[in-house]
């Protein structure tokens, strides 16, 4: 019998002073058996940093034709495609062909090695932005994970306050 996903519910209050955007979101996230709570919370953070009416989670880690998080407008056009981790070139180029903008939110200890090996082709893609979550910030977010969460997320001058965690994501390649 296949292992089933674990359902997490989040009440997320977003106050993004940088965009400016304010909203309350009732979210359901499925934690795939092969996924860590850190990745789950990075998905939640990616949502918070781009929160809006048309933003939604993809079907999950095993859905190859979908983003982890994406913004699809009412006409079906993909405005934003968000990849997590350290995707390969083919996946990022495919996302660029389908979406107006592409974000890669990289996390984990291997991000510097991945960036060093891939930055030359990533820097050539105008649609792509790359955001790094440090291992310390990833661990702080994972510690916040609960099956039922109520979290406030405040973004101001690039700093992110998610629950009790103060996060400092780093743009390896800023959005154009």
How does this model look, in words?
This protein has a single domain (6-173), classed as Restriction endonuclease-like alpha-beta roll fold (Roll), CATH 3.10.640.10. It has four helices and eleven strands; from the N terminus they run ββαβββαβαβαββββ. The longest helix is centred in the first third of the chain and has 14 residues, at 37-50. The radius of gyration is 15 Å and the shape is globular. The protein is α/β, with parallel strands linked by helices. Strands 3-4-5-6-7-11 form a six-stranded mixed beta sheet. A five-stranded mixed beta sheet has the order 2-1-8-9-10, with helices on one face. Helix 1 (37-50) crosses helix 4.
Briefly summarize what is shown.
The protein has helices at 37-50, 89-98, 111-124, 135-144; strands at residues 6-16, 21-31, 55-57, 69-72, 78-84, 99-107, 128-133, 148-156, 159-162, 165-167, 170-173.
């Amino acid at each position: 019998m296949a292992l089933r996903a674990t359902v997490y519910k989040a009440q997320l209050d977003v106050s993004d002073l940088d965009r400016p955007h304010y909203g309350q979101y009732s979210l359901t996230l499925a934690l795939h058996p092969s996924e860590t709570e850190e990745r789950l919370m990075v998905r939640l953070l990616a949502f918070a940093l781009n929160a809006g009416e048309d933003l939604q989670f993809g079907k999950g880690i095993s859905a190859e034709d979908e983003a982890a998080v994406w913004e699809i407008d009412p006409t079906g056009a993909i405005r934003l495609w968000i990849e997590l981790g350290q995707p390969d070139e083919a996946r990022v180029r495919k996302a660029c062909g389908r979406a107006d903008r592409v974000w890669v939110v990289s996390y984990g200890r291997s991000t510097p090695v991945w960036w060093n090996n891939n930055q030359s082709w990533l820097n050539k893609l105008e649609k792509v932005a790359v955001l790094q979550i440090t291992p310390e910030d990833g661990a702080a977010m994972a510690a916040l994970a609960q099956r039922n969460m109520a979290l406030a997320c405040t973004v101001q001058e690039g700093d992110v306050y998610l629950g009790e965690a103060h996060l400092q994501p780093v743009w390896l390649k800023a959005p154009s």
